[in-house]
Amino acid sequence: MTTQRPNGLPVILDVDTGIDDALALAYAVAQPGLDIVAVTTVAGNIDVYRATGNTRNVLAFLGREDVPVHRGATRPLTRAQRGASHVHGTDGLGGADLPESQRAIDVTPGPATIVRLARERPGELTLIAVGPLTNLAIALNVEPRVAEWIPRVVVMGGAYHVPGNITPHAEFNVWADPEAADQVCAAPFGDLMMLGLDVTMQVGLSREVWADLQQRTDRPAAGELAVRVGRQTFVDAGMPQMYLHDPLAVAVAVDPTLVTSETVRISVTTSGEEDGRTVSVGPGPTQVARGVDADRFLAGVHRALGVRDVTAQ
Ligand code: BDR
Ligand code: CA
Question: pTM of the entire structure?
Answer without folding.
Answer: 0.96
